[in-house]
Amino acid sequence: MPYEIKGLNEECGVFGVFGAAKASQLTYFGLHSLQHRGQEGAGIVSSDGEKLHRFRNRGLLAEVFANENNLDALVGDVAIGHVRYGTSGNNILENVQPFLFHFGDGDIALAHNGNLTNSATLKKQLEEGGAIFQSTSDTEILVHLIRQKMGMDFVSALKQSLNEVHGGFAFLLLRNNRLYAALDPNGFRPLSIGRLENGAYVVASETCALDTIGAQFVRDVQPGELITIDKAGLHIDSYTPKTQLTICSMEYIYFSRPDSIIHGVTVHNARKKMGRLLARQAPVDVDMVVGVPNSSLSAASGYAEESGHPYEMGLIKNQYVARTFIQPTKQLRERGVKMKLSAVRGVVEGKKVAVVDDSIVRGTTSRQIVRLLREAGAKEVHMLIASPPLRFPCFYGIDISTRSELIAANHTIPEICELIGADSLSFLSLPNLIKAIDLPEGRNLPNGGLCVAYFDGKYPTPLYDYREGYLKSLKKQQEREVV
Amino acid sequence: MPYEIKGLNEECGVFGVFGAAKASQLTYFGLHSLQHRGQEGAGIVSSDGEKLHRFRNRGLLAEVFANENNLDALVGDVAIGHVRYGTSGNNILENVQPFLFHFGDGDIALAHNGNLTNSATLKKQLEEGGAIFQSTSDTEILVHLIRQKMGMDFVSALKQSLNEVHGGFAFLLLRNNRLYAALDPNGFRPLSIGRLENGAYVVASETCALDTIGAQFVRDVQPGELITIDKAGLHIDSYTPKTQLTICSMEYIYFSRPDSIIHGVTVHNARKKMGRLLARQAPVDVDMVVGVPNSSLSAASGYAEESGHPYEMGLIKNQYVARTFIQPTKQLRERGVKMKLSAVRGVVEGKKVAVVDDSIVRGTTSRQIVRLLREAGAKEVHMLIASPPLRFPCFYGIDISTRSELIAANHTIPEICELIGADSLSFLSLPNLIKAIDLPEGRNLPNGGLCVAYFDGKYPTPLYDYREGYLKSLKKQQEREVV
Amino acid sequence: MPYEIKGLNEECGVFGVFGAAKASQLTYFGLHSLQHRGQEGAGIVSSDGEKLHRFRNRGLLAEVFANENNLDALVGDVAIGHVRYGTSGNNILENVQPFLFHFGDGDIALAHNGNLTNSATLKKQLEEGGAIFQSTSDTEILVHLIRQKMGMDFVSALKQSLNEVHGGFAFLLLRNNRLYAALDPNGFRPLSIGRLENGAYVVASETCALDTIGAQFVRDVQPGELITIDKAGLHIDSYTPKTQLTICSMEYIYFSRPDSIIHGVTVHNARKKMGRLLARQAPVDVDMVVGVPNSSLSAASGYAEESGHPYEMGLIKNQYVARTFIQPTKQLRERGVKMKLSAVRGVVEGKKVAVVDDSIVRGTTSRQIVRLLREAGAKEVHMLIASPPLRFPCFYGIDISTRSELIAANHTIPEICELIGADSLSFLSLPNLIKAIDLPEGRNLPNGGLCVAYFDGKYPTPLYDYREGYLKSLKKQQEREVV
Amino acid sequence: MPYEIKGLNEECGVFGVFGAAKASQLTYFGLHSLQHRGQEGAGIVSSDGEKLHRFRNRGLLAEVFANENNLDALVGDVAIGHVRYGTSGNNILENVQPFLFHFGDGDIALAHNGNLTNSATLKKQLEEGGAIFQSTSDTEILVHLIRQKMGMDFVSALKQSLNEVHGGFAFLLLRNNRLYAALDPNGFRPLSIGRLENGAYVVASETCALDTIGAQFVRDVQPGELITIDKAGLHIDSYTPKTQLTICSMEYIYFSRPDSIIHGVTVHNARKKMGRLLARQAPVDVDMVVGVPNSSLSAASGYAEESGHPYEMGLIKNQYVARTFIQPTKQLRERGVKMKLSAVRGVVEGKKVAVVDDSIVRGTTSRQIVRLLREAGAKEVHMLIASPPLRFPCFYGIDISTRSELIAANHTIPEICELIGADSLSFLSLPNLIKAIDLPEGRNLPNGGLCVAYFDGKYPTPLYDYREGYLKSLKKQQEREVV
């Protein structure tokens, strides 16, 4: 969750509700609990049965809807919403979702979490046929594919289109009287269904959004499914028989909220077990265990309990870090001005400290943490990472920096340890990661039903438009390494 | 720190620096780490040696200085700053500090943390002498008292004025070439001095602000002291010999940041010990210990370690709660829409849970927490409060709701337990509180050098202007209780 | 120009420049002098030769670019811009121009002044072919028509598309290395070309924009022309041979700035002559002539000079009317609170006053003016309108309220006179209007080369999609009149 | 009124109303018509009979009250308001009026138009007595003087204080149940009383504000008067018998709105007569007369009528000049980018033009106007100024640039003519100015009851604190001239 100090970010959260009064307000509260999945933009589209209404803008949800009138104007008892993570290049209003399209035969709204691997090819084909795109996002492609099939009934056109796009995706589509949810054939992204007391159905990226609005969990959307919700209730269908679950392991390690339950596994519990297994795999002789707030506290408490070392609050995070925050100048940084994280001198001074963090991307944050603790008087600092080294990019919806930036793609573990200045450094092994998550549905599947490609480079699907560039980057890196 | 869900608030944090380039930026970063002490307004005054410059506004520090130009305009190597907690009635721009006064013979700026007990009397006397006040704050009185002594040298006038005001106060005064810091004779409020590498001195409400800007701790300001900092360095003086330390115990229990060290005691350690002593004093038969994030995590981990029960993350706090946040309507609340805090079903379901919180004011939050946990499936919920029951108001700078709102002033512990719906409820005893904090300087003083008047109603000073109203309210309450 | 007190509004102004450093800034200043043509939104697209850059928003130009960085980011020496008038229903960001389309084979930007009469039909056809529109504006259609002709070279596709759209239009299109300007076959809207000292070409809705940036007038764009500007200079071509000039007479009467020269006629001079001819046609026995500021001052001075009556400043306009202006409540209006216009008591008291205004739409403003003057003591108020009665809607780019709102479509002149409370009321005759404008190019054309359909209901082109609705409304009105 | 292109500015407008429902809204509309007197800040204080309420901010009135809630919060049927002109140095929120003072014995609000000549001396004396000022404005002094007289009844203290301040002033004071208005003994500034239909009294800097809210003119406040308005009605009193009317002639020449009537003279009529007398005094051989919009249109029409030359609209002003307007860079200005004013080529091309302006301060604007007209093709440009040369500063409330900036203080008329590039230049003579205004009350007074010190340097009162600096500046200038 501490997105601001990481190079690792989830792209987006989606939420939808059908058949509840003040649907846009429920969507607002649902999205609020998904805010950790994207902070660059937010939007909601509601339907009053005749027309779709939208409000969206860049910024946090609470900023976008700072003027409550903008929420109140989204009337109707059906709505979908989206919180967006955007990379700097494409952080423009046109890309903020849900997308909304007005047609003579009715409106369509669309919200998406994921990344398509054949979008460049599809976009080129569509443009050559006269299509005009309004955003630089690949999400829009789905609607163009559907509209190319004019004459076909909507659901058939949608199913056929879902077979034409590849990659990781969780789509919500809204028409005036129906809400559709579709998941890719690998189920890379989480998507759950809940039900409110009045019988209204809810769809959300994580179950924490169901809890927030008081909805009961019904089931996870399964790979390759197309869910339709309308006045007659919930309809489960699938658009392809070729499916195999490989859900993103980073959802358990880092992205999802600790209280979310994905495919039967509570995220906090998985993290705690990662900590426990790491304690067995990499014991250290220390006085205390410290977690990096907030995302690594679960793993750290697991490590502490299993190792028997006391669990201490040796690092605290300033809860008032706003995005408009003025940054210390170089001059001030050299003078030691610290932001966001502080070490608790009264706790760590003179002590041997084990720091548990969930992952290392570029290594910058780890280096800062080690320095903070040493300046506060820690005698030794041992860094313990509750996941394997990140060495390969993700093409299914996570923005992991290019390989050249991943410290573990370019350095051995002892080199990294030296670069971050720690006394020792250990990573959880891949088998232990799979064991910690222990997905019930994945027990007979490769890698326990998880996608672990960022760790081992073995992608569960073809890479389509990304394949060539990826192979080139691998080659270039190997050349560098040889030199 | 979770000010938004409490009825208990500290009034203000102060920070000052003398003799460091970009003093206003250092002050900004210092205040940033004191933001938990006040979120209603912020301001900084700098001195370039000839003139004082000010910028202030209502809102969080990062909002006030959202436009960096406003900070850059505060030139000079001396500055003081203030973050303000304000009650609704007086939350106007005129009351945002530091105050700045332009005189023909030089400017004066003033920042204050505390509350004066004889301000009404002084203000009346001054107005009858022709004085004109520009704010509704009592802070301004000090400058009027000084200016009434025209002809006297500044320091003598200041010392005499400090003897005329009563109550709890930590003042910072800035003139063009001097920075003054003064603490009340009881040292109700914390105030610490640090030094930067280049020799510049820093004064701050808490030591966490010293750490943030890389300053070394020098000493705590002592009761009755007047500190002067100028080009010649640090001068320690006192304006009265009649002093006795009774520092606010709530600073340790709730207000201060866990990494701050006050009179030699690290706040986190004090809280952890409160948890430990509570575990000995009030053991419960549970499956796990859960802390209320974020302020009660220290005490909860102490309770867990001492009791041997596992420490779990059964409650999590949404880190994106903004102040513009749209509130759920009654209709939505009834439907179960929850904000800010969530219970982790995967952790607490079917379990007996001990919840550790730092204090209970009106009881509203405790009731919500119990309900959240029960809805998430907790079998039993035991509430453990790491401080004694709050039964009396504070007149020295903490905004504790009037007695009529304090649940413990009106109900017995079994009654409170029923009102909040818990299976059991225990409070830390007063002797254990004093023992947990264990102030080195206070070992031979009554109550260990602490003010504990909110718990026992024994105020360490006369109440002056408040006395009559306080006695009336006591009487009214007793009558109610008799009826 | 006093758009805020009228029911009559021009839709939009356009501006483009090719080959001048800081093209976006020149465009800003050009648009600034066209602000009277639209106040609801503004935008600029620049080209740096490789990429198009855009900034747009709702509001006045100075509001849209209040942060100068947004203008500075529009780099390059080519740019087009747009100021927009929008009716309430479609006043959304998506409709603010220029439109910008990103294609694999290059970007296109588009700005438009006018109204298409067959847009509904075209849009339906395009959607049935799979096209997706992003705005509710008909401007977008042109780009879809062009993209349907993939394979054809761009200019041929553009020319063919220009033959498919009907109505009144002045289009600017920008590609990376070329700027295109196209005018409809009737030349309903004004569009002029200028040249800067360095040889760069400029296109603008009115010549006042050329003057503002120091460009020399080159020529008016003629009906049916397609102008191309690139590094090789200016190329004049036409996309159809079937043209006949019928430029909008309201441009001379009301919309354009008095200093603009359209088809060789200075707007101020035409208005002054309207006043002169009105003085001959409708002499009144008065003490003075007063113009309604600001748009009617030219006509009023013409009336005064021709009639020999003194020209007086009997009405003044508050120049600080902002759009956020708080409106007087009904209670205050009844108490006589007046905004915007004031009568000068010291001038009109006890006098017989001739008021010259340019037109009457709903009659509301005229009624207010008569009342203002009477309250200030005027003995008689004679209303003189320097154009014929407005009785029919416009379909070529002017937002004249529907027929049912036009007072002259529903009442005789004596009835209107009574409704507005004047002592007498006269309108300029249609032949005198044509004589006053006296278009050199139009001397052998019907109506002197002008469109006067709002006065006589004789539209110079078929009405396409509007025909049926228009005929219905005529019939409904006739029935009402019969009843 | 075109304050943005002048170096000459009026300091402030005041408005007050007693006994009308929604008094703050009436005040808003009254101030709106006084906006030309000050654009840097605005504020309103209302009284509900028990408490005074204030809202103020920097900016135009419509900006300050952009959020209507801020106006609605000013409840009660009594209010005063202020629009402020501020020089750059003191344009801070603390200086925006009305000032509001809270006292134990009741609140006082204060609004002021004018300038005190002994404020430095008084401020020094008051500070030495312990007074603390909250603004850098001299307005505050009056309240301190009153409060120094504690024990005396309020009206006696006020009267005595009014005798202690010197210079030009129009004060409005508000207490809970009384509104006071006071004018200096020379009546330098205008101040008028009106009455609403319901009997409520209104006080305003100009009568145009009375007209705007539908109030009937009652009388002008006379020099040395103290007016009291309360539930018993209007009470006229005077605080000094030593009075002599010398009202500021610049109010007639430039500042006041043309529809205002000051001491019986309509401003537009005075200006028109200035134009007429200038035509007789300085006839020129031209084809047309052109006024500089908007302030010089009255004088220009007078000149045209008297001379028999046609009055033409040869210059127009862009009505959309906003304060956030992006300024042309030097590069763009050299390319000829023009703002604010445009010459109408179709009117002036090939013609001999007489331009009438109200005054010349630094000469910059005149030079621009001459250039604009020549670039638009004017054959000759004759500049005619409808007032005498401005050669001396004002100390009574007008911000005329220091002598060193006044072009007429440093150059002869032929030199100025050459500097601005005109073919000829004439100024109205001082006797003709006095004759044009022709103040009924001033017929037997020196200079017809006008202050004309900016023209002849003969100040009607001692200069007090300004005397020494003024004499020095005269001497320095004489030395420069000798050299």
From TrEMBL, chains A, B, C, D:
Keyword Metal-binding belongs to the record: yes
Positions annotated as active site in the UniProt record: C12
Entry-linked SUPFAM superfamilies: N-terminal nucleophile aminohydrolases (Ntn hydrolases) (SSF56235), PRTase-like (SSF53271)
Co-factor remark: Binds 1 Mg(2+) ion per subunit.
Domain of life, per lineage: Bacteria
Keyword vocabulary terms for this entry: Glutamine amidotransferase, Glycosyltransferase, Magnesium, Metal-binding, Purine biosynthesis, Transferase
Record carries keyword Protein biosynthesis: no
Record pathway: Purine metabolism; IMP biosynthesis via de novo pathway; N(1)-(5-phospho-D-ribosyl)glycinamide from 5-phospho-alpha-D-ribose 1-diphosphate: step 1/2
EC nos: 2.4.2.14
One BP term from GO: purine nucleobase biosynthetic process
NCBIfam families according to UniProt: purF (TIGR01134)
HAMAP family with a match to the protein in the record: PurF
Protein name (Swiss-Prot/TrEMBL): Amidophosphoribosyltransferase
Organism (species): Liquorilactobacillus satsumensis DSM 16230 = JCM 12392
Lineage: Bacteria, Bacillati, Bacillota, Bacilli, Lactobacillales
